[in-house]
């Protein structure tokens, strides 16, 4: 956790990069000690654990930097049945001057969401899911309702 002031879009970018690299140490370093996740988790270590579980259940999931209005967010992309990536939701984040203090999962894609698209390296890194999840959404992830 840092003490330098960091712009919200830079925190979201670092979160996206850490998530896609599967680097939980980087993600943990971006979170406040009392970071909340989706209203069910209220400390950074547990948030990191839930994100690790989410990655384990959905190894083909990738994030991209995005904007919803003026707010930076992390768009969630998964492959469809033809292995083409499509957005299925996003992580909204609240930040203070230096850390992410809250992460919310939204399982919709508003028309106003402007997202980068996956690059060729995402499509080239095929990962097979063996846990029964489908590529059509979050069938059994830790944050599903």
Query: How large, in whole angstroms, is the Cα Rg?
Result: 14 Å
Q: Characterize the largest beta sheet: strand count, sense, and whether it forms a barrel.
A: 6 strands, mixed
Beta-strand residue percentage: 25-35%
CATH architecture assignment of the domain at 8-60 and 92-105: Roll
Could you describe the 3D structure shown?
Helices cover 27% and strands 30% of the residues. The chain has 145 residues and is of the alpha+beta class. A six-stranded mixed beta sheet has the order 1-5-4-3-2-6. A hairpin with a 2-residue loop joins β2 (62-68) and β3 (71-79). It is globular.
Summarize this, please?
The chain has helices at 8-20, 24-30, 44-57, 120-124; strands spanning 31-37, 62-68, 71-79, 85-95, 100-106, 113-115. With 145 residues, the chain is an alpha+beta fold. A six-stranded mixed β-sheet has the order 1-5-4-3-2-6.
Give the tags.
single chain; Nuclear Transport Factor 2, Chain: A; globular; 6-stranded mixed β-sheet; disordered C terminus; alpha+beta; 145 residues
């Amino acid at each position: 956790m840092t003490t330098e002031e960091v712009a919200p879009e830079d925190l979201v970018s670092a979160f996206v990069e850490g998530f896609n690299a599967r680097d939980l140490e980087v993600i943990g370093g971006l979170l406040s000690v009392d970071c909340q996740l989706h209203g069910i988790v209220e400390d950074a270590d547990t948030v990191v654990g839930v994100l690790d579980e989410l990655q384990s259940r959905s190894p083909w999931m990738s994030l991209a930097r995005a904007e919803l209005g003026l707010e930076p967010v992390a768009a969630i992309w998964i492959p469809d049945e033809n292995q083409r990536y499509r957005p299925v939701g996003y992580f909204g984040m609240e930040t203070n001057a230096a850390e992410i203090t809250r992460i919310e999962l939204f399982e919709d894609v508003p028309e106003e969401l402007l997202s980068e698209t996956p690059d060729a390296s995402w499509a080239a890194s095929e990962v097979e899911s063996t846990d029964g999840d489908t590529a059509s959404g979050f069938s059994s992830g830790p944050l599903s309702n």
